[in-house]
Amino acid sequence: MTDPHDPLDPPLRRVLVADDEPHIGRIIQLKLEQGPYDVTLVSDGQEALDYLAGDAPVDVILLDIMMPFLSGLEVLAEARKLPHRAATPVIILTAKGQESDRRQALELGATDFFTKPFSPKKLLARVDALFE
Question: What is the pLDDT of residues 78-112, one digit of tens each?
């Protein structure tokens, strides 16, 4: 675990994870927190958008597509309209692996697209790569 007060440790990156399946969100959180990440977990699209509309720092966003209230794609589209979130990397996580979903996510500005089930280790490597 990194110590935010140790100048030799890298700074904690802040990650917002939006997934309505608690066990998946928790697996992602546990894996990312093994690295220099501070994870905020939300369980629906409206909660994600409300969080993103605020001032809390977010370095990367992980969004499930199928969530209550707003889909991950709707959250992505709205986040891209927010000046302070327009360039924040977004990784879509979904059980819907159709090419149309991938294409729509990328057109809306997603950085990457993972189909469930996915390897938490590969997801961590992809998030790490965003900051190299």
Answer: 999 999 999 999 999 988 768 888 899 999 999 99
pTM of the model: 0.89
CATH number of the domain at 54, please. Answer: 3.40.50.2300
User: Is 5 within a domain?
Assistant: no
Domain carrying residue 57: 13-130
Which is it for the CA torsion 90, 94, 98, 101, positive or negative? negative
Q: How far apart are CA 82 and CA 24, in angstroms?
A: 27
Q: Say if 6 falls within a structural domain.
A: no
